[in-house]
Amino acid sequence: MERKHSSQAKFSVIVWFLFMFNFVGIFAETCEKIDVCSCRKSNGKVISLRDVAGGAKGPAIKGIKTISPPGTVFEFDWNPCTTFTEGSSCTDMLICQTLPNSQETHPCANSVASFESDTDGNTVINYEPTIEKATSYKRTFTITLKCDPNKFPGYTDGVREVYKVKDSKYSMVFSTKCACDDACASNNDNPAENSNGLSTGSIILIVFFVLLFVYLVAGILIKRYKMGVESVPEVIPNYEFWTGIPSLVKDGVLFTCQGLKSGCTSLCQKCSKNGYSEI
User: Fold this and answer.
1) Angle at which helices 200-221 and 2-27 pack, to 10 degrees?
2) Is the pTM of this model over 0.70?
């Protein structure tokens, strides 16, 4: 009997997590790359840095300090949309690393791998890694765009570096009004994409509801005319399964909460004994 209840609880947890996974998957925000400085979110809005970029004149944002690790003297120049050249080592790049008061430069990024949205709704630019030919040094850059309607062209606190042997990962946060939905978008941001076409999220939702409608209508017709079911709601296809989902989700939530409560209680009891582990 206990084994049966345990199996039901596990099944309830599985149903709960599948429900939450599908819900989040449908409504999670994404940002599809248009070009190196713009992307279209799943809600149809465009994030574009074209107004921030310096174009052919050179990097729009220069002398970005390195704030971590402390004491690092290197700085960075960034041009969001157009490549530029600095020194002999940094050629046709979107981001270059520079050493102030010298001619030393290093390539950091010349193309965008992808755009994505983080859990806070910010747009993140993932640049393709670059490998310096002379030293085989690999550099990877990520920039998080934070919406600030009152800032233009924008500001950053600086660059953070995670260093390994011949491998550096750089990241920074850039706050600007151009990181807000459609704030700096124009017809230059891929006119073909600016047509009245539907976004990916809209297409997914339309397909989902169409399939749901077909499923319900076909199921009702089969049960009514082939199986002879006339009562409501029994005529709904898989009626028993759908009516059982709320209780299964509830059981899954309760089972998960009880497990977490039990684990926390056990941990607190161990910590409150004497603070020492038994030998």
Assistant:
1) 130
2) no
